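Self-study notes.
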Amino acid sequence: MEVFNIKGIFVKDILNELAAQFKTSLTENLFEYKLELPKSLGEGFIQGINFPNGVGLLQFKGKFNKQIVFNFTSKKVHPLKFFYCLEGSLIHSIKPDGERRKIQQYQSAIISSYYHFGHIYKFPIDEYFNFQVVEIDRKAFREHINYKLEDIPYYFYKLFADVEGVREVFYESNYTLHLAQVIKEIEEFDKDNLVRVNFLGAKALEALSLMLTQYEDDLKENNQQRILRKSEFEIVNDVENYIDQHLMNRND
């Protein structure tokens, strides 16, 4: 197992530290940074960007050929994290002896650690992974909004007002069809320069809004929830395909 300790909490610092430890180079385009994984560890890339409003976006995509752990060790307040797992899985904990939680395909999670702890990402061996993280620097975010956090519902207030990182949060769910489409649009967008930066900034906020809508929906009783999840759609689609296939076979 190889452990990479990371002191930074913002995209540029994180990727610069990893590039130094991987002994590889880092590319930059209008403050979006990309790091190709060295062949000695596997294949794929990590890329991301931070915006002035406190919102950041990171993507991890590839496959490691050995057990890899990213240990985020900063004693500063870490960003509030919104995870979206498109493929594969990831084990998350906030300290070495802390509870280990698995985030899998079609799952999303809202995660906040205590200020004196960090985040630990444990990647599987020889398993393709693809997940995105919208990160919120709550102090910067609060300075850029034009409303008072005290005016929003308390369940949102608890997430965004904790600028000192005194509350641990781990909320896990299956993400929605709409959110799945936004994530796909972020991944597939192929424009460059200013067009790309503006697109990513807008889509990161859209993904955040959809995640909060999903979070609000999950707080309701089961019979009052109205949003279809991606995993539920996949099950329905599989059942429909199964029925269609068997009907075709019977007609033959």
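Second protein, same conventions, sequence then structure:
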Amino acid sequence: MSHTSATAYTPKERRMVAVSAVLGYGLDFYNLIVVAFLLAPIQRSLSISLPEVGLIVSATLIGSVLGGVMFGWAGDRWGRKNALLATLVLLAGGAVLSAAAWDFWSLIAFRFIAGVGVGGEWGAGMVLFNEVWDHRRRGLGSSIVQASSSAGLAVAALVATWALTQFSDVYSWRIALLIGGLPLFLMLFIRNRMPESRLWEEYKALEVSGQLPPQKKSESAAVIEIMKGASLKYFVFGTIVAGGYIINYQSISVFMPRLMTQILKASPSTLLFVTLLFAAFSAIGMIAAGYISDAWGRRRSIIFSTLFGVIGLVLIYYTGTTPFPGSLFTWSLFWAYIVWGMGQGAIGQFGPWFAELYPVELRSTAASVIFTMGRLVGAIAPWAVPILAAQFGLLNAMMLALAGSAISLIFTLTLPETAGRVFEVIEEKERVEV
């Protein structure tokens, strides 16, 4: 029996998977980020303390870690499509329930549920997309999916601004959270009509019929197998690459609004415009990284994007004390921030690279857990930057991003190049350079 990849997808099937991935990840990011715009009205309307508000954000992040591990494993065990449908139910349900929360504890529980759905979305969805998509264009396709996060950011900023200006504290945050849940019901329609990964289906058919090679029959659960041999190396180094990137991203993106408005005196309306333009330019950077990835490799694409972002960091450092001059386009910090944003395209290549490092029976678990653990490593930045700021000032503390970029760059060199790899049903765990 041939064990080459099952690639017979119709154009319609590929389109359904692509639409599902783009909408799913965009809405996923909306739900992850919109709370950041709503912290003040949540605090006032529920009469809770600032530390309790922080716990609400933390609950979503903790839930995403659990969801990433749980649904990554589910994608390998029960199928990518089934895992995605389950994440939709939790994400939609958690978002809608959050809008109906009546106190601190109910809100923290519902945001945890939504977070589980958020965490599961990336792994199973990105793996399914990469298994269905043309192997010669995985980098570009994945970057477009990832760029939908920019659309999620833009929509979150617009919806939150509209809700906060049109409604009282009691209703504004509820409406913004509710909007994060309702469109997801449309995804059930789309995902019920998209195909399952045929690679996964063929592997499972071989498993059920007892036709797997002996080394595959002896494998343990995917969460155990990714901790063995070459898979462990890819897991550790991949987590460090993703974690370094997220330290860089969180150090700047979380604190730039405060730097611009509270320290450099830009208005909230200016910040909204900055956010929208930043989202657009960062999407351009991601798509450019996708072209480079397919043409010259995953590693070179990530190195190029990261170095471009480092240029932005240097510019931010040297322009970050310039007060808002009254015109956005003459503000040097704005342009430095845009350069940095265009250098964030590396994240769009984690999906194909991590997927290409692992065989089909471990792929969903591995890709999801690596990215989730990277998020966990990157979570050090929102905690560390304020501590450093108390000693060195906010702008200097934000340069923790340079350390994150350096870590990501160094460990990018430790993983094999995989661009153009053709997936097969039966593959070895050790990946040689393509």
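Instructor comment on the second fold: Residues 1-6 have pLDDT under 50 and may be disordered.
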